[in-house]
Amino acid sequence: MKIATLLTCHNRKKQTLACLEALYQNRLPRESTLDVFLVDDGSTDGTEQAVRDLYPQVNVITGDGKLYWNGGMRVAFAAALEKGFDYYLWLNDDTLLKPEAIHEMLETAPKDMGIIVGSCQDPVTGTWTYGGRSTPHGGKSLTGTPVIPSNAPQRCQQMNGNVVLVPHTVVERIGILSEKYTHAIGDFDYGFRALDAGISLIIPPHYQATCSANPLSEWCNPATPLRKRLALFIDPKGINFPEFMVFCYRHFGIKCILTGSKVLIRLFLPRLWLKKAGNRA
Question: Are residues 169 and 235 in the same domain?
Fold first, then answer.
C-alpha cells in the first residue's frame, strides 16, 4: 500500500516541522509506504532548508509565493499523481496527527470508494475545530453542523481539508483540486464534487489530529476598518469574492445571487450579521 502525504506551507517553520514530526510518528499498516510531497511556497524563514536538513526523504517542491493553499496542494497532488499511489493524504501544516490517525483512516476506508474526512480538536479545550459537517437535508449546502466523532464511522456532506484521505479510485473519478480557486474553498468544492459523483464523505471514529481554530476572518470582522475589509474582499486570504461566486454558481446555480447578497451584508454590516447569527444560535 503506497500513501502520499500532501502539504503546502509558507513561513511557518516551527509549525511545519512539528507537523512532519507528528506525521512520521504514525503507525502504518504492514507492507505500506509513506512518501511526503511538500510545497514550500516562497518561505523566507528558512522552512525549506530546515525540512531538507531534518527530513531529507521529503519531496520538497519550491513555489513562488503565489500558490497559497489550494494552488500549493494542487502542485503537490500533481507531483504525487505522476508517481502513482493508492491513497493521497491531505494535511495542513498546522495540524498535528495522532499516532493512530492514518491507521484509523485506512481502516475506515470502504472497499469500493469514499473520501475519509479526519476530525480535529483544539489542543487545549479538546473541542471540535475542523472535519466534516452535516447539512439540514443531507445534500450540498453552505449551512452545516459539525459532526462530532464517535466510536463508529459517520457520513457528512461538507469537509475541511485539514486531514483528508483520498483513495486513488476517487482521483480517477473526479480528478484533483480545482484550478478555479487560489487559497480557500477548494476543499469544500472537492467534497461537493465527490457528492455529485455519488462518492461518500466518511468520518472515521475518534479524533485524528489537533488543530486550533482560526479567528474570525478580518473581512467580516467589525473591528477591521472598512477599507481593509474591502481589500480583503478580493484577496486570496480574504473571501476572494469572485472565486467564491464561481464556487456558489457551480454548486447552487442561480441561488448564488442570494448567497452573494448575504456575503455583502457581512462585509458592510458585520455587527448586524453577528447579532443575527447570535440570535439564531
Answer: no
Q: Is residue 33 located within the same domain as residue 137?
A: yes
pLDDT of residue 275: 74
Is residue 90 within 8 Å of 190, Cβ to Cβ?
A: no
Angle 57-98-123 (CA atoms, 0-180°, nearest 5)? 120
Exposed/middle/buried for residue 66 (C-beta within 10 Å: 0-12, 13-18, 19+): exposed
- CATH number, domain containing residue 44: 3.90.550.60
pLDDT of 279 above 60: no
How far apart are alpha carbons 222 and 205 in whole angstroms?
Answer: 38
Domain span including residue 261: 218-280
DSSP for 90-104, please give it. Answer: EE-TT-EE-TTHHHH
Residues 266 and 225 in one domain: yes
How far is the C-alpha of 211 from the C-alpha of 277, rounded, in Å?
24
At 161-171, the pLDDT tens digits run 999 999 999 99
Chain CA centroid to CA 41, Å:
17
Q: What's the one-letter identity of residue 145?
A: T
C-alpha to C-alpha distance for 183 and 199, rounded to whole angstroms? 24
Structural domains in the chain (count): 2
Q: Report the sign of the C-alpha dihedral through residues 97, 102, 107, 111, in that order.
A: positive
